[in-house]
What does this fold into?
Amino acid sequence: MINITFPDHSVRQFESGVTPLEIAKSLSEGLARNVLSAKVNGKMWDAMRPVNEDATIQLFTWDDPEGKATFWHSSAHLMAEAIEALYKGVKFGIGPAVDAGFYYDIDTGDITLTEADLVAIEKKMLVDVSKAEALKYFTEKGDEYKEELISELEDGTITYYKCGNFTDLCRGPHIPNTSFIKAVKLTSLAGAYWRGDEKRKQLTRVYGITFPKQKELEEYLVLLEEAKKRDHRKLGRELELFMFSDTVGKGLPIWLPKGTELRLRLQEYLTKIQKEYGYEQVITPHIGGKQLYVTSGHWDHYGEDSFRPITTPEEGEEYLLKPMNCPHHCMIFKWKPRSYKDLPFRCAEFGTVYRYEQSGELHGLTRVRSFTQDDAHIFCRPDQVKEEFIRVMEIIEIIFKALDFKNFEAQISLRDPNDHEKYVGSDENWAKAEAAIQEACAEKGLPAHVEYGEAAFYGPKLDFMVKDALGRKWQLGTIQVDYNLPERFDLTYIGADNEKHRPVMVHRAPFGSMERFVAVLLEHCAGEFPLWLAPDQVIILPVSEKYLDFAKNLQSYLKKSDIRALIDERNEKIGRKIRDAEMKKYPYMLIVGEKEAAENQVSVRKHGQVDLGTMPTEAFAELIRKQVEEEQNKR
RNA sequence: GCCGGUAUAACUCAGUUGGUAGAGUAGCUGAUUUGUAAUCAGCCUGUCGGCGGUUCGAGUCCGUCUACCGGCUCCA
It folds into this structure.
C-alpha cells in the first residue's frame, strides 16, 4: 500500500500501481469522468499512469490551466495524426499547448498546406483514436527532427505516445481518451523556424484550439470577435486618432488632430510629474553625426539594420536619423564640467526616433519605424543608482495607477549567460547593474520574473509588459542601468575628493513610446478614454436649430473653463444625435433646448448611462474640473 | 527578411461557370424644427491596389510588385 496526499493535506492509502484516474474514481464518479491529467510529486502525470510510491497528488480537469494544457497537447497529437494520415511523408517538429490552444510545427516537404486543408484536417481529427508505445520508429521513418530531440534526452527518461497510427516522442502527459475532444478549430497557418533559429529550416506551423463542448468553441469565437472590436487599428480609424499612408511610408504613423490632443494630454501629465521628480526638459535634433553611434556602440550592433546614413552634398559628412536619444544626452552631460553636487542630472526629452524595423514586424502603432520615446537619462553617482531607480519605479507606478493598468508584468531582462559576445562592457559592470535592478525590485516589493537574453547590449533592464486585446505581450515602460555608455563617452564628474569619477546612467521611459502606449491604452479602454484624456470631453446636442446660439455660447464658456467641447450642429432629431454621440464614445453629452436656454442650464447625459438631470452650466464645469482632478490623482 | 492569407466607393461588405460593377453607412441637396440610442425624399461616389500576360473579352484566370492581416525571426 502507498500513501496518497491530497491538496487539502488529507492522506489516504491505495494499492501500489494505482492510477490517478482510479484515485479520482474513489473520490467521485463525476470527478473520474472529468480527470484529464494529474501532478504527482510535482511532476505532470497521465491519468492512467500507475503511481508506485507514496505521493502528493493533484488531479486536473478542464477547469484547471494544467488540465487545459494536457487537453490541448493531446489535441496537437490528434491533429498530427490526422495530418499524417492525409499527407504522406510529412515530418513533425514540436507540438505544444499554448495560452489558447496548441500548434504543431510540421515539415510538409513538397506539399503546401492552405486554409482549405485545415477544414479537411479538422474533419479527420474528430474520427477516432487511442494510445500506446514505440521508439526506433522515428529513425526508421527518417524523421530527423524527432531524432535530434531524442538524442538530447537521457536514457530511461524517454516517453512517447502513439495516437492511432501516429507515434510521437513526447514528455506528456496526455488525456486518457481523445473522445474528450468534441470541438476542433484550426485557426491559422504560419511559417516557423525549427527551434526558433532563423538560419534553420522553416516548418509549417498549424495553430488550433479544441474544446470538450461545441458550445465552448462557439463562445470562444464570439470572444475573439469581441476582442477584435477593441483592436487599436480599428478604433484609431473610427475615433480619428491616427492614420498611415503608403505614400508617406509604411510604419510611419501620422497623428490626426484628435490623436494629437490625446497624446499631448499624456505628455503634459508626465511632464508635470517629472518636474516634481527633478527632471529637466531638453530638445535635441532628429539626426546626429555617425561618430556618435560608433562611439556608443550602436553602429556596431545595429548599423547594418538601420536606415542608411544621410550625407551632406559637398563634404560627404554622414548623419544618422537618430535611433535613440542617449548619445545626444551624453553630449549634454559633457557640455560643461559636472560636480558631484550637481548629480543626479535628470535630462528628459520626448524624443522622436527612427528605426528600420523588418517589414514583417510592423504592426499598427505598436511596432513602427518612427516613434516618440518619453525618454530621460539620469546621470548619477554610483551610490545614487538604487535610489534613482526606485524613484523611476514610483513614476511608472503613478502612471499605471492613473490609467488603471493593473495587469502588467514586471520583467527583469538580463544578459544571455551563454552569449557574452552580444554585449559590451566588463563582467564587473554588468554584475553591478544587474544587482542594482534586483535589489531595487526587492526593496520595492515588486514581483518580477527574470528573463535571460532580453537585456539591451549595454545593460540590463526592468521592463513593464502589458498584453493587448488579443493577448500579445508588449513592452511599455522600461528602466535600464548602464555603466557602459558613460565609459564609452568618457563622461566624468568631479567628486568631493577633487578627483574625476565616472557617473552611472539610468535610461528610462515610463510609457515606452507614445505610439505603443496609446495603442495599448486604446485596447484596454476600448476607446472609452478617461475624461482627462478624451480628445473631446463634451458634445453639445441642441434639440433643434433654434438653440444653436445658446449652444455656441455654452461651448465658448466651456472652452474658457479648459473643457474640450464640440457641438452637433446637424439638422437631426435629438435621438439620432444621442445615438451617434454614444457611438463616438464622448464622455458627456449636453442636451440643450428651450428650458435650458431660458435658465442657462444643461441636461447632462454620461456615456453609457441615461439622463442625469439638469444643472446650471457653472455646476457642470465644476463637475468636469473635479472629475479630471480625481482621475489624475489616483496616487 | 521568411511562411500563409487578403486587397472592389471615405467605411463595412456583395459580385454566379470570364461578358465592361452593386448594397448599407458616411457625404451632398431639399423637406421637417425635432426632448434622451437611427425622420423622410433625392443625388453623388470607383483607374475593382500597381504593372504585365492569357483571351474576341479579365473585378473574376496566370505572373510580378506594393500595402495590409496572422504567425516566425528581430526589437537600441
Residues 65-86 of chain A form the longest helix (22 residues). The CA atoms of residues 490 and 502 of chain A lie 8 Å apart. The radius of gyration of chain A is 30 Å.
